[in-house]
Amino acid sequence: MKLQTKTMKLSDKTVNLLKNFSNINQSVLIKQGKQLRTISVMKNILAEATVEEDFPKDFAIYDLNQFLNGLSLHQNAELDFQNDQYVVIKEGKSRSKYFFADPNVIVAPPEKSINLPSEDVCFILDTKELDKLLKAAAIYQLPDLSAVGEAGVIKLVVRD
To answer: Has this prediction a pTM greater than 0.70?
Structure first.
C-alpha cells in the first residue's frame, strides 16, 4: 500500500486553474485525489479538471482568491496538510496557517459525475489568450464569453 504524503507544492498550472475556478465560485471543496471540481452558486456552470498534484485529503476553502493571494506571498510555497483544521503554507522559515471552511457552507458539485453528450466543438485555448479575453470583457464591461462557429471558423467573443 502506497503511503500518501501530507505535504505538496502546487504547480503554476494548478494555481491558474484555481484562479479560473474562483471566477465560477469564490469557494471550493477540494476532494482527495487529482480531480478538481467546482460549480457556480446558481448551479448553472460546472467545471472539472484533472491535475498533476494528488491532494492528500478533503478540505474546503471559503475564499479561494484570499487563499491564492496568500500563496503568492511565497516564491516556492509548500502546503503541509498534517492538521485537519488548517493547512500550513511554508517556505524556508516563513509559516502561515490557512484555516479550512466548514464544507457545509460551500456550494459544491454533486458527488456523481455528469455524463455530457458528445462534443460538438473542441479547441485548445491557452491561458494567455483566455486572460486577454477576460481582460477585454472587464474593460468593456461585457459579462459573457461565447464560442461562436461560423463557416468552419470558431471565434471567441466577449459580449452582452
So the answer is: yes
